[in-house]
Design brief:
The complex is a heterodimer of chains A (525) and B (328).
Chain A: H1 2-13, H2 17-30, H3 35-43, H4 54-62, H5 67-77, H6 80-87, H7 102-111, H8 117-127, H9 130-140, H10 150-161, H11 165-172, H12 180-186, E1 208-209, H13 212-215, E2 223-229, E3 232-239, E4 242-247, H14 258-261, E5 268-276, H15 286-290, H16 300-305, E6 308-318, E7 321-322, H17 328-342, E8 347-349, H18 357-367, E9 373-380, E10 394-398, E11 402-413, E12 422-431, E13 434-441, H19 447-459, E14 461-465, E15 468-471, E16 476-481, E17 483-486, E18 494-497, E19 500-505, H20 516-520
Parallel strand pairs in A: 1-10, 6-8
Antiparallel strand pairs in A: 2-9, 3-4, 3-5, 5-6, 6-7, 9-10, 11-12, 11-15, 11-16, 12-13, 14-15, 16-19, 17-18
Helix pairs in contact in A: 1-2, 1-9, 2-10, 5-6, 6-9
Chain B: E1 2-4, E2 7-10, E3 15-17, E4 25-27, E5 42-45, H1 47-57, E6 64-67, E7 73-76, E8 79-85, E9 93-99, E10 102-106, E11 128-133, H2 145-158, E12 164-167, H3 173-183, E13 190-192, H4 197-205, E14 213-215, E15 228-231, E16 248-252, H5 259-264, E17 269-271, H6 279-289, E18 293-299, H7 301-310, E19 314-317
Parallel strand pairs in B: 3-4, 4-5, 5-6, 10-11, 11-18, 12-15, 12-16, 13-14, 13-15, 16-17, 18-19
Antiparallel strand pairs in B: 1-2, 2-3, 7-8, 8-9, 9-10
Classes of the chains: A alpha+beta (525), B alpha/beta (328).
Amino acid sequence: MRNFSALIDGLVFMPARNGKIRLLADFFATTPDPDRGWALAALTESLVFHEAKPAAIRQLVATRVDPELFALSYDYVGDLAETVALIWPERPERANSLPPSMTEVVETLRAAKRGQVMGLVEGWLDTLDSSGRFALLKLITGSLRVGVSARLAKTALAEWGKVDLGDLEECWHGLTPPYADLFAWLEGKSDRPAAGKGAGFRPLMLSHPLEEEDMAGLDPADYAAEWKWDGIRVQLAARGGERRIYSRTGDDVSGAFPDIADHMTFDAVLDGELLVARDEGAIAPFNDLQQRLNRKTVTAAMLKEFPAWVRLYDILFDGEEDLRGLPFTERRARLERWHDAVRPRRMDLSPLVPFEGWEALKGLREGSRENSIEGLMLKRKDSVYVAGRPKGPWFKWKRGALTLDTVLMYAQRGHGKRSSYYSDFTFGVWRGEELVPVGKAYFGFTDAELVELDRWVRNRTTRRYGPVREVEPGLVLEVAFDSVHPSNRHKSGLAMRFPRVHRIRWDKPAAEADRLETLQAMVMG
Amino acid sequence: MKVCPEGLYVEPGGFYVDPLRPVERAVVTHGHSDHARPGHAHVLATAGTLAIMRQRLGEGAGATTQTLDYGDAIRIGDVTVRLVPAGHVLGSAQVVLEHAGTRVVVSGDYKRRFDRTCAPFEPVPCDVFITEATFGLPVFRHPPDLGEIDKLLHSLSIFPERSHVVGAYALGKCQRVISLLRAAGYDRPIYLHGALEPICKLYEGFGVPLGELRPATVAAKEELKGALVLAPPGAVADRWARRLTDPVVAMASGWMRVRQRARQRGVELPLVISDHADWDELVQTLDEVAAPEVWVTHGREEALVHHATQRGIRARALALVGFEEEGA
């Protein structure tokens, strides 16, 4: 457990994604099989065993520690696993028994009956040091929570093994812990393991933003257009009796969307946009979808109030048949034919948008102020479906951003490289004589501008609330955003989508910033 | 002996121990600012503590000062006073008071670990033990120091291009960390924030070798890549740290034992290195001094009082305010 617990400790404290990748790579490089494979399974939540309930852990610790001292300590520390890890008495006889390896822990747990788990845990707690105890308790309560998604773990593996992440994703689903064949491939000792037969994640094909100057070189006849819907991109994989819904990064979100998974009674892999739609196909604002995101499970009330919908873009597999090598137009025909035959509920096709030349398309794009549309997608008719973001075959052409002159109200220090800078800005607009906050932005400015902003904030602070500074209303930030929606979470009653600092208006007096009514008028039906 | 707004008052001697406000006569256990406050008329302390006070407080170190070496006895009023090493920082002392056949020991801040930068703690059996309890919860159990230093050196090997900035209190912790690094074989120059330099010089003057130290000036920006830099805890995440390229932020403190506390401070590499006794050592010390009565001055006193009571010791919390737990 030593390497694993050191890894967990490192990850807990590492805020930066690249730092996490380095720690993971170092761990995979220095930890033998099968320990590293079981650790990978723990990180990607691919382990199945009888978990321990927090109440059982409390009971266990009460047999070793004075309850009053435990209560005072728990009150101070706040986290059960951590309190127990720290307070568990170190026994002198520990020197005589070796702490278990990761493999011993996992294999024993997998074989154990429910009633045996706490006895095993007790024995291990006695031989581990506090970091080991913490890692063990996190492991056996079923959730490590160290800020590592399955995707990040795979990214670290791919970087360490110097293989393509898409290649790794492709075979991932066919693998089982402790992944000896995977590590053999990553260390150059064997070929890539075969792709799995089940409902594995197939890496998505992504697009580049279309720059106006690109258009001159492109022939409109080569491209098909369709709306870019304002939801989250998903892959629906129903293969060999398995059903999975993946986010664009390959995270399995099936559990949160049973209202889609229930209708995946087909055998295919599809690419589409996850949305909320109350009536058949009537798309709700993104804000409604947000209520359903980042949850592991979902309540009946939420299913009713925010029912999910998938608007289909593409088909990757029809049964066993891999369609990714076909050109877009052929895949599209297959998708339409498939949809016609299967007619899955809670799903429809994203229609193609016919157009005559770029100018006409531009008109269509500007005219599309509908809430659920983010802009247009352009796909080369001959484009095959490949992983990643190749330049040329697919473009996204977002609607022009909205802008608003706002007043800086609060600033907070950032993280990592920005930890000494006030870099997270809350801005507001005028409602009568008072400012009301309407959003937060932390990018859109250069490093040099950040230095200026930081100085401005430090010199104009009027109050401090912990890490937050309130500043005098004196700096106008021109903020760009994709759209604005009604929201009861915000004091202003409005929520911006994707706000960023567009320009810093050092020249403009705060009194001339926009008013709340202006923003309200930008809300679209 | 009684607790006044000024602090702990020793009535038959007419003096205070670590008074919080200016008084006529003070006995000072050690040089941390929450114990060694300015403006007393007369100060008694070890040579180390007085040197630290003079450096930090200048004129405020005391109108008149008197050195008392470890182990020597002096009579103040009706009380015999001795200073005994507390192992906390250079010059730190417990105050041993004898009056009318009763011995009272005021621990000041103390630790039990080996520390080559100061004299080791000596337990003195007594009738009343007045102890600190900064880490008075059983979750505080400091791991071996050198293991923590290994963590720092391992991080330097994984991130060799990043400077590693260690937040460490200027008096005691800074010199201890340097001394531990040297003991672990780290012989490259160590860079210091300006606020740490004077006390390091003072330690060297008292015969504590610290190896090559350099100022962490802006000019040395290139040199600081991959280097070890020590700075006061408050500076590591503020403007001062901008001279460092993508630094790994470490913090050397007993508080680092609790992950959530470390994370709140933005620490990437917590090092549990403390100049205070941990829970086990507090309990061990109560056993060794075998005092039938224990008073707890500051810290998480509730748990230690509970523990002592369970053991049949008469224990109470003094709830002295004003000790800031700095340098923990």
